[in-house]
Structures are given as structure tokens and as C-alpha cells.
Amino acid sequence: MRRPHPLVPGPGQESVWDYPRPPRVERVRERVTIRLGGELIADTASAMRVLETSHPPVYYLPIADFVDGALMDAAGSSFCEFKGAARYLDVHGGGSVAPGAAWNYPSPAPGYDALKDRVAVYAGPMDECTVGGEIVTPQPGGFYGGWVTSSVVGPFKGGPGSLGW
Fold first, then answer.
1. What residue ranges do the domains of the chain occupy?
2. In this structure, which topology does domain 14-148 adopt according to CATH?
3. Residues 102, 86: contact at Cβ < 8 Å?
4. C-alpha pair distances (Å), 142 with each of 116, 139, 159
5. Which regions of the chain are under pLDDT 70?
6. β-pairing, 32-36 with 128-131?
7. Which of 43, 88, 121, 123 could form a disulfide with 76 if both were Cys (CB 3.0 to 4.6 A apart)?
8. Taking the CB of residue 72, how many other CB atoms lie within 10 A of it?
9. Which long-range contacts (CB under 8 A, 24 or more apart) does 69-75 make?
């Protein structure tokens, strides 16, 4: 499979094709929120994002910035060649449950220590996820958890035909 043609970023935008591999972790300056079941379940000014070639950013919020009871252990796990072993979490809010819609790295691999005690959430099952007040769009496909905002351009891995990127 050949690499797609990256879109040219406009003013104030980033191309996901300029992101590194292995991924980079960086602090987010904007406020990040998550709503589920009509309730605000997370609100933070202390998020981190992971930037990896061809992927929109994945946002990691401090576990402490979720309301009590919003995150519950779920079945399943996975392994990232860079970040290490992940566990999955069910997300609860306003009487709604999104099974396995969040994950974290309890003991992240060296170089990814900033992700300890932080959780990433799939935007699709949530009512709304925002970055700096902008409602995000979930990364295409069902496997990756990136959040697409107007500040990033693709094309993004995850959609049909992108498996070999």
C-alpha cells in the first residue's frame, strides 16, 4: 500500500504527516471536556496529547479530572509497541455506559511516563468531547482513538484502505 498524499495545512493547522514515529507526548494548553449521558464527566486544563504519524492527536486526561464513578475497569487489554500494556475502562455518565470506551497505561514504557494516571477516551461513544471549546470528530474506523479538530489535516489512518499506512 502506498502512502497517501498529505493535505497542505492552512494557517494555524498541523499535518498529521509531520507528526513523528515513535510518537511524541506533549502538554495541551486548551481546556478539554467530555460529556456522556447529558453530564459533564471530565473537565481539565491539564491534558496531554500523543502525536503519531498519520493519526489525529489522542488526548489523555488526568484520571483525577473525571467525576467519581465515571471510569470502571473493563475486560480486555492491548499492547502498544511504544507505550506498553494498556487496560480498558467502561465510561459512565448520566445513566449511560460506553463499554470499553477508554484506556490507559498503568505502567507506561520509558519515555511515556507522562501518560501514567491519565486516560484516553474514544470520542465516538461520547455525547461530546471538546478541545478549546471545539467539538471533536472521532478518528475514522473503530480501532484508533484520535480526536479530529479543525487544527489538524490528514488524511487520517483508520478509514478504509489505510491499514498499510
1. 14-148
2. 2.170.150
3. no
4. 24, 8, 9
5. 1
6. antiparallel
7. 88
8. 12
9. 70/36, 70/41, 70/42, 71/102, 71/119, 74/99, 74/100, 75/100
